[in-house]
Amino acid sequence: MTNYGRQMLMAGEEEKISSIKTDKIAQTAKRIESSLGTLASFSYEEDMGSAELKTILQKMETDFVLLRSVLTDGKQSLAVLRSQWLGEQKSLSLRNNALKETADSLTASLKNIQLSADRVRHQAEEEAVQTSQAAEWVISVVCLSAIAFMILVGTLIIRRIVIPINKAVAFAIIISNGDLTAEIQKDHDDEVGNLVSKLSDMAHNLNALIGQVQRSGIQVTSSATELSATSRQQEAVMRTQLESTNYVVKSVGEISSISEDLVETMKKVASMSDQTADFASSGQSDLSHMEEAMHHMENASKSISGKLEAINEKAANITSVVTTITKVADQTNLLSLNAAIEAEKAGEYGRGFTVVAREIRRLADQTAVATLDIDQMVQEMQSAVSAGVMEMDAFITEVQRSAENVGKISMQLSRIIEQVKALSPSFEGVNESMQFQAQNAQQINSSMLNLSEEMQQTVDSLRESFMAIEQLNDAASGLQDEVSRFRVM
Known about the structure:
7 helices, 489 residues, 0% strand
């Protein structure tokens, strides 16, 4: 390759390099121009008023214009500059020196701008701190004033509303706990004062109501207890009468049956009077068996009498136990009374024990009433057993007498048989009388059955009445328990 070719190739490459450098210089010039505009606008917006800073900015703009004019002088292409390069070495050297001086001046100006910016920043920070302190002081004063106002308003609200409401709430709690003796005073004539007045009226009315309920509960309990005891006594009496009536019904039924049998027997006797003598021996044997049966009945009656006496002794033991229970109930009642007195002496601390003592006294009274009922029932049972023993003794005596009579009858049977034939005419009249007696016995049996049914209905009614009285007593006791926890005046 010739020297001319190499020069042409180098000229082409230098043109490309110059074109790239020109673009970069133009971009750099735009950025520097934009930065200078930003600094100028910043200085005017902040109103710095620094003549030195403005002078530096103006000098930087002048240097930048000079630098740009040097870089883009005459708007000529790099190809023309290349053609003039060899002839303008001296001019380029001078321009390079001017460019270096301009760059140094620009660097110094930038340092001065940085120092001025630091001073402005420190001054702005100090002003911001002072402004912040002033704002904090104003906020503190406003907050303290608001707090003082709120405390004043809260104090007024507490005095006029909260304190009376708290008193009313405390009074309501005391009332709900059962203490109706508490009182509350009306402090103001506003809505809260009206509420307090109504609560006081409610407490007085409730006090009167609970007092009346307690007195009525005691009266109802006493009446129910008396009715219960009376119902038990009447039920026991009606049961005894019912048993007696059933026994009479059974006896009347047997009498009716015997009367009918006697009627039939008398008919047969009337027709078979002649054959009576033939059966006399068998009649004597039957009388012997009857006498033996009488002896068995006598022994059984003695055994029953002994058992009744044992029952009487057990009833006496029950009486002694009931007496002991009565004494214990009396002692318990006395102890509960002493405990109530001691609780009253203790004042507020003995209030709970007063309720316990009252409950013990009530239980002791109920125990005393129950023991009186048991004692009365035992006495009635002893009376019934004693009457039974006496009746059994009389029955044993009657059985013995009957056995003796059977022996006598057996001895006299032979003579009676001899007289049977003579009695045949009388059998007809006896037969008619026995028929009439049998009819009367049937009527008596029917009447006694009706009486037994009516007495059974009476016993059932008494039992239902007793159950109703027991329910009334339970309800009265429950009511008394519920209202006993209230303290009234």
